[in-house]
Design a protein that fits this description.
globular, mainly alpha, 187 residues
């Protein structure tokens, strides 16, 4: 019996629109991690992130009847996230505290043979990178996270953020330059 081809996100969303709940579960499984990390790095508050994350998925559920695959599903999903973040920032009355807690850094798997000094070095590098990403200006951070967490192209990021491709390209170039400069001593 041949193995069925994996359905595209767009097909899954159309199937969900038609009532296939399993299709929604697959979309959620595919996109929950990247979307959550994108939101967490944008708003820097785990409680707000959890609320925004739930709101975005609920918005997707409510909008399923109007979904038309005019772009990649991930572009559609991250556009919902971008719009929800804009609303969140408009309502916010004070700045968020930046926190890089140990839970943000993955620990090696149980039984790992990684030496303590290598583990420390890896954790220090990850902490430094997270701090550098958080220090980027908001527009550069968003473009960087959409590219790396959302796996989006320049065109898709432009569609999500409402700017042109060249602006996205510029934001990414500046973001990468700042990250490279900040990680210079680790190269």
């Amino acid at each position: 019996m041949p193995i069925p081809a994996e359905r595209s996100d767009e097909t899954l969303m159309l199937d969900y629109r038609a009532g296939d709940v399993v299709a929604f579960e697959e979309l959620y499984r595919r996109h929950k991690g990247g979307l959550y990390r994108y939101l967490l790095r944008q708003c820097r508050d785990p409680a707000a992130t959890a609320e925004l994350f739930q709101d975005i998925w609920m918005n997707l559920v409510r909008a399923r009847g109007r979904y038309e695959p005019s772009a990649r599903f991930s572009t559609y999903l991250y556009r919902l996230a971008h719009n929800r973040l804009v609303d969140h920032y408009r309502r916010r009355t004070h700045g968020a505290n930046v926190s890089l807690e140990d839970e943000d850094i993955e620990e090696p798997a149980q039984g790992s043979q990684e030496q303590p000094d290598a583990r420390y070095e890896r954790k220090a590098l990850a902490t430094r990178l997270l701090a550098l990403v958080e220090s980027l200006p908001a527009a550069q951070r968003e473009a960087f996270l959409l590219q790396h967490e959302g796996d989006m192209t320049l065109e898709q990021i432009a569609a999500v953020t409402g700017v042109n491709r060249e602006t996205v390209k510029s934001r990414l170039r500046y973001a990468l330059a700042k990250l490279r400069a900040g990680l210079g001593d680790w190269r």
